[in-house]
Design goal:
With 859 residues, the chain is α+β, with helices and mostly antiparallel strands. It is built from 30 helices and 15 strands. The strands form 3 sheets. An 8-stranded antiparallel sheet has the order 8-9-11-10-14-15-13-12. Strands 3-2-1-4 form a 4-stranded mixed sheet, with helices on both faces.
Length: 859
């Protein structure tokens, strides 16, 4: 067969494909058979036989046995160090007919040592040769090359692995993320065909088990299935475009979808996104697994195995991944899924693939309503900023996210109908929650803000007004998650009216009093709902795409919100709750006392501590909790008859709380100055294996109270009212915010009436180990008495309210210089938010720049 006949046969095959006689897999197979037949025939004609010392080896598409309509022929003419003249004659006889027939060709002529040398120096060449396949001629010569390349790849993988990671990242940076591109590059983009081929190369190096290692999600989108789907789409793209095009353009999408019986261009986009995200998750797992499996040499072999470091109940860090503790039993612990995800988000560590598989196989459904701890962990996850993206993606790709939120299936991989959107609908929701988490210190209900951000567009893809449908779904979700009825109502109203402020601000006259009145009436005069919608409008715009949120839109919405706030009555003042009769009896008994009783929720206890009131007492009480590994969900600070009565709702780090007698002894030692609680807690933070900036509490509700700790310079570190034991986290998300207000029934204005008066100081900030202790120490240093305090932790955000007065009755708490000094010193001990890491920036989890997105160290 002449090369012109080969070209003619190719054209006929494409005509058959267009008429529907050949589907995409069939077309690829026939093309492979056709080119192999021609190469074998031509090789025999040129003397490329079994004992000739010559062989034709295919790489690329022909080597993999999946030749596309307009793919290049990637061929190597191997020779056993034959004379140059003979090799040149054979090469010319093989290459020129293909060129003359306008068949695209990528060729080389090599001896086996030359080919191995090229593979040792060039990662791209090595990856190609790993897919080499014998076509014609001396098969022993081909085996020598193929076996030699694989052996060389395995022996050099330890030193070449950083180059492999860098090579992949450079490709992703150039081609982008397939799942979120309007015109995705199916071959080279992140989540594309090259990534599956890279997984195969890692499997050849015996570092992973290839594409089979990643679990299929409920839709059956295993990595190999996803690969075949993208390969079919690429085949049809070549056929329709009539050229070797790799990017799916909008004008071709409907025809491709029809040819593959997928649907219209939106259905095709959803199919591509699903396949690409499955592959993207698989390559994350594969690179991380490969990095951990690299062979050790020399002194590295003597290195001690990685330590299993506790992160949460049943969750530990091992070898740079979040895994289950040895004694964890997923089948008996429905909340384990969310604890694993929250631990991953707050530490920036990826979840182990084996852990996800175990959870998918054995973890039961959460009962309805969710336990308080599960809702708390969900809020911690959503409050972790951009660090939530990878854990949620991992849960979603393994079917666990849909188990938690069944309504998610309608928006999974759903393409946007508006070109202004950068993300699929499900990723847009996660991105909105990510941006909202940086605004949690602006609102009084940060938990509802991040929950509302996550579900505000959940009604899309259902053929009706997504705001109305979404509001109904929000009620369904809120009840399932165990929110209070009034909170379910606010959540539903957030979803129903999430477009209200942008729409009114940009389309109506703000000077017209009826405009603000319309918004207030629509929201029922609910101030909390108004501030939540203001933050959600900004987060939603930022997550939509570049340029959607700007100075013009921001100024209009903020002006509208200010006008609405003037029409709404003031916020109800924060007040202390009374002591129970049992607590009053403990206070009147005098001396030191510690009581522990089970509280609502699994592994949750109420610790009541009583001691003679004095400055700094709260600091020591909370510090004792921290030293015993008790993380506080909420706290109430009160007093009676000269005794401080402070209650903490806590969760032990592991197991059960310590004995009451031991805690009482340590409390006495701390009060008498025999134990420096803050110093010990600071040491714990400093010794954390991962750089620690923030630590997260898991509370969602608060117990309010009064304490006359006359200067209760409070301070609770680890267990103070927030801080979960020394669980390291790599980031803070929201900036600290300090608010001042007056005390009901007392003058707090400037002037003589304010002397000796009280004021309310409210701190909103991301949590940190020892935060309450440090803040209380600042207040004590400024001569402040804490009359009572309300400590609340909502996800990652601490909302601490202190009723304070100055120790010197001649000095006013309203002095501007005093307030400025207090604020400045408090801000110094608060965690500082880290810059947001944008997707595909090249940085890894946490934005440290020291790891790839998959957690693989980069040299």
């Amino acid at each position: 067969m002449a090369a012109t006949d080969l070209a003619q046969a190719r054209r006929q095959l494409l005509t058959s494909a267009r008429s529907g006689k050949l589907d995409a897999p069939g077309l690829r197979q026939v093309l492979v058979d056709l080119h192999e037949f021609w190469l074998n025939s031509k090789g025999a004609e040129l003397g490329i036989t079994a004992d000739s010392g010559l062989a034709i080896v295919a790489v690329g598409g022909l080597g993999r046995g999946e030749l596309l309509p307009y793919s290049d022929l990637d061929l190597i003419l191997l020779h056993d160090d034959l004379p140059a003249a003979k090799v040149s004659e054979v090469a010319d006889g093989l290459w020129y007919p293909l060129w003359d027939a306008n068949i695209p060709l990528d060729h080389s002529v090599r001896t086996v040592p030359q080919a191995l040398s090229v593979a040792a120096e060039d990662v791209t060449a090595a990856l190609g040769l790993l897919e080499a396949r014998h076509i014609a001629g001396d098969e022993d010569l081909s085996k020598l090359l193929i076996g030699g390349v694989r052996q060389q790849w395995r022996s050099q993988i330890r030193t070449r692995f950083p180059d492999i990671v860098t090579h992949a990242q450079d490709r992703w940076r150039r081609a982008g993320d397939i799942a979120h591109r309007a015109e995705p590059d199916l071959k080279s983009g992140r989540g594309g065909l090259r990534d599956v081929q890279l997984l195969g190369a890692l499997a050849i190096a015996q570092l992973t088990d290839g594409v089979s290692q990643a679990r299929a999600d409920p839709s059956g989108s295993a990595p190999q299935t996803a690969y075949v789907r993208l390969l079919d789409i690429r085949t049809e793209l070549h056929r329709i475009a009539g050229r070797p095009r790799e990017q799916v353009r909008a004008q071709d999408a409907d025809e491709i979808g029809a040819a593959l019986r997928i649907g219209d261009r939106f259905d095709l986009a959803r199919s591509i996104s699903d396949a690409a995200r499955t592959i993207s998750y698989s390559i994350d797992v594969g690179l991380r697994t490969a990095g951990n499996a690299l062979p050790r040499r020399g002194l590295a072999k003597l290195r001690r195995p990685p330590v299993r470091r506790p992160l949460d109940e049943g969750v530990v860090e091992h070898n740079g991944e979040v895994v289950l503790a040895r004694n964890a039993i997923p089948s008996r612990d429905p909340g384990l899924i969310l604890r694993v995800a929250a631990s991953s988000a707050r530490t920036g560590l990826p979840i182990s693939a084996s852990t996800l598989s175990r959870l998918a196989d054995y973890a039961p459904e959460l009962r309805e309503p969710w336990p308080r701890e599960a809702l708390s962990d969900m809020i911690v996850l959503l409050g972790s900023g951009h660090h939530m993206v990878d854990p949620i993606e991992a849960l979603d790709r393994t079917g666990l996210w849909g188990r938690l939120i069944p309504e998610w299936g309608a928006v999974r991989d759903l393409p946007p109908r508006d070109a202004i959107h950068s993300w699929t609908v499900d990723r847009h929701l996660v991105e909105t929650a990510s941006y909202a988490s940086a605004m949690t210190t602006r609102v009084t209900r940060p938990d509802l803000l991040v929950l509302g951000a996550l579900i505000h567009d959940l009604g899309k893809g259902r053929g009706a007004d997504h705001s109305i449908v979404g509001a109904e779904l929000a009620i369904q979700l809120g009840n399932r998650m165990g929110l209070w009825p009034q909170d379910v109502t606010i959540l539903s109203e957030m979803v129903r009216h999430h477009l209200l402020l942008p729409s009114v601000a940009t389309r109506r006259d703000l000077e017209d009093p009826d405009t603000a009145q319309f918004v207030v009436d629509t929201l029922g005069g609910n101030r909390v709902l108004l501030e939540l919608l203001a933050a959600l409008a900004e987060a939603d715009s930022l997550a939509t795409g570049p340029g959607v949120w700007g100075d013009w839109k921001s100024s209009l919405i903020h002006d509208l919100v200010r006008r609405c706030m003037r029409l709404i009555d003031g916020v109800e003042p924060v007040v202390a709750e009374p002591l129970s009769p049992e607590q009053i009896a403990l206070a009147e008994a005098g001396g030191f006392a510690v009581e522990i009783s089970p509280a609502e929720g699994l592994h949750t206890y109420t610790v009541t501590m009583v001691a003679p009131d004095r400055p700094g007492l709260l600091s020591k009480m909370a510090g004792v909790l921290g030293l015993h590994g008790l993380r506080a969900q909420s706290a109430s600070v009160r007093s009676h008859d000269g005794s401080a009565v402070n209650s903490f709702v806590v969760v032990p780090r592991f197991g059960s709380p310590p004995e009451v007698g031991l805690m009482r002894q340590q409390l006495i030692a701390a009060v008498e100055g025999k134990v420096d609680v803050l110093a010990r807690l600071d040491a714990r933070e400093a010794e954390s294996p991962i750089p620690t900036i923030a630590s997260v509490s898991e509370g969602i509700g608060a117990l309010a109270g009064v304490s006359a700790s006359a200067g209760s310079t409070d301070p609770a570190t680890d267990g103070s009212g927030h801080a979960k034991f020394a669980v390291p986290a790599l980031f803070a998300v929201a900036p600290a915010r300090i608010l001042w207000s007056g005390v009901p029934g007392e003058s707090s204005g400037a002037g003589a009436d304010a002397v000796g008066g009280q004021a309310i100081l409210e701190l909103r900030v991301d949590d940190r180990i020892g935060l309450l202790s440090r803040v209380s120490a600042v207040l004590e240093a400024h001569g402040v008495d804490v009359r009572w305090a309300k400590v609340t932790t909502l996800g990652n955000t601490v909302v601490d309210t202190f009723c304070i007065r100055r120790s010197d009755p001649e000095r006013s708490v309203d002095d501007p210089d005093f307030r400025a000094a207090v604020e400045a010193d408090i801000l110094k001990v608060c965690p500082q938010p880290q810059p947001r890491v944008e997707p595909n920036s090249g940085n890894g989890p946490g934005g440290t720049g020291g790891t790839s997105r998959s957690g693989v160290p980069i040299s």
